[in-house]
């Protein structure tokens, strides 16, 4: 089951990147931009949680 989910995620990213780069699809570029912003938010959240744990310990 995990391998199927991983395969689906990799396929989604591959198709989206191909659509954004090769076909210059605006919706695909917007999706990649959104995912980039989500990744930045996730990284910031991890850093803030680490700082919070350091502060409390």
Structural notes for this entry:
With 57 residues, the protein is mainly alpha-helical. Helices cover 89% and strands 0% of the residues. Helix 1 crosses helix 2. It starts with a helix and ends with a helix.
Quote the beta fraction: under 5%
Overall number of strands: 0
Please report the number of helical segments: 2
Q: What is the global morphology?
A: elongated
- Structural class comes to mainly alpha
Average per-residue pLDDT, rounded, comes to 92
For the sheet with most strands, the description reads:
none
Uncertain residue ranges: none
Strand and helix order: HH
Cα separation of the termini: 38 Å
Fraction of helical residues: over 70%
Radius of gyration: 16 Å
Protein name: ABC transporter permease
Transmembrane segments: 39-56
Organism: Tepidiforma flava
Keywords: Membrane, Transmembrane, Transmembrane helix
Describe, in short, the structure shown.
It is built from two helices and no strands. With 57 residues, the chain is an all-alpha fold.
Write the layout of secondary structure elements.
Blueprint: H1 2-21, H2 26-56
List keywords for this structure.
mainly alpha; single chain; transmembrane helix; elongated; 2 helices; 89% helix; 57 residues
